[in-house]
Amino acid sequence: MSAPSIPNLLSTRGSRGGGRGGRRGRGGRSSSSASSRNHDTIIQGTDTDAAVSRMSAVELGYLEDPFAQYFVQRPAVAAGAVTRRLPIINRGTYVRTMALDRLISSFLSGIGQGQGQERQVISLGAGTDTRCFRLFSQPAQAGLVYHEIDFPAVASKKLQLVKDVPLLRNIMPDPASEAETWKQLLQNGCRYYCHGLDLRDLTKPDSKSLDGLRTDIPTLLISECCLCYLETAQAKDVIKHFTDKIPTLSIILYEPIKPDDPFGRQMVSNLAGRHIRMPTLDDYKNSEQQHARLVEAGFEQVREMTVEEIWRTWIPEEEKERVDGLEGLDEVEEWNLIAGHYIVAWAWRGQGFEAWDGITG
């Protein structure tokens, strides 16, 4: 996804070269339509921050992503002035990306193999996420169906960028546009769909099913700080939209938690200062409530870990040494505090998820 920086709610210290860590979100209506539109615009704008955070982590050697450079403002890249985030933010971007890469790789390589090679990924609020390009540039992803959903303006901008950049165009050649959906038939039987759609419209009674959606193959639903921008009832309805249709279904959530302790209250205050709300944060405040949320949604098995726990248990010691050597991190206590306020939760129902069941450390 588009590499949200860990302190996106809470960093008041800024970054080297300006700007703050951010993340695109998709939703969050307020009482009036005017303020709702304004909030949507603000949330869409945070995707720019997310792209810069990802590029910062790539430029400094935390991550490898040859596509990240195309999703930051080109004048800044040409001038060599890509914003460098603080070390604590770069580490957060790195850990979140590594965690989701591990879970998604496990899904693609080990889940549903007894049912054939076809698998499906649905990325909610995809924004400038580059994962689809990274996956489709790998020859091993035969039979992958990949959906991205975002506001029409965001999806249209991404489509235009693919048309303009040869490296991206070589991965996604000859786009075929129909209405608000851009669809591709790629090599090895892969399919890609970019849907220009407000998630809140997806759950309306008269809404049509997503073009190309498969209900008969193992599916992974991904929400990286996306559903948290919706009202709680809307977020539930989005998940239900897919649980009602797809029997063999899994989900990955990346969201903030603990809004009521001193650090969490500062997070929420900083959000409010940017005119951003995360309504579900009031209802899913901790690991237990995130767990219960997914059980209530109909998933049979649920796991969750904070970003701090993932750093301690998933990242090998030699890799930690490499990351530490990139910049050094003096604020270890602050890192533990920040990383403890973000969670990755994953859940599933159906057969063939043994690989996920074994991911604990």
From TrEMBL:
InterPro entries: LCMT1, Ppm1/Ppm2/Tcmp, SAM-dependent_MTases_sf
EC numbers on record: 2.1.1.233
GO molecular function: protein C-terminal leucine carboxyl O-methyltransferase activity
Organism of origin: Monosporascus ibericus
Enzyme class: transferase
One Pfam family, short name: LCM
Catalytic reaction list: [phosphatase 2A protein]-C-terminal L-leucine + S-adenosyl-L-methionine = [phosphatase 2A protein]-C-terminal L-leucine methyl ester + S-adenosyl-L-homocysteine
Record family assignment: Belongs to the methyltransferase superfamily. LCMT family.
Residue numbers binding S-adenosyl-L-methionine: R96, G125, D198, L199, E224
Keywords annotated in UniProt: Methyltransferase, S-adenosyl-L-methionine, Transferase
Record bears the keyword S-adenosyl-L-methionine: yes
GO terms (BP aspect): methylation
Function recorded in the entry: Methylates the carboxyl group of the C-terminal leucine residue of protein phosphatase 2A catalytic subunits to form alpha-leucine ester residues.
Region of interest (Disordered), residue spans: 1-43
Protein name listed in UniProt: Leucine carboxyl methyltransferase 1
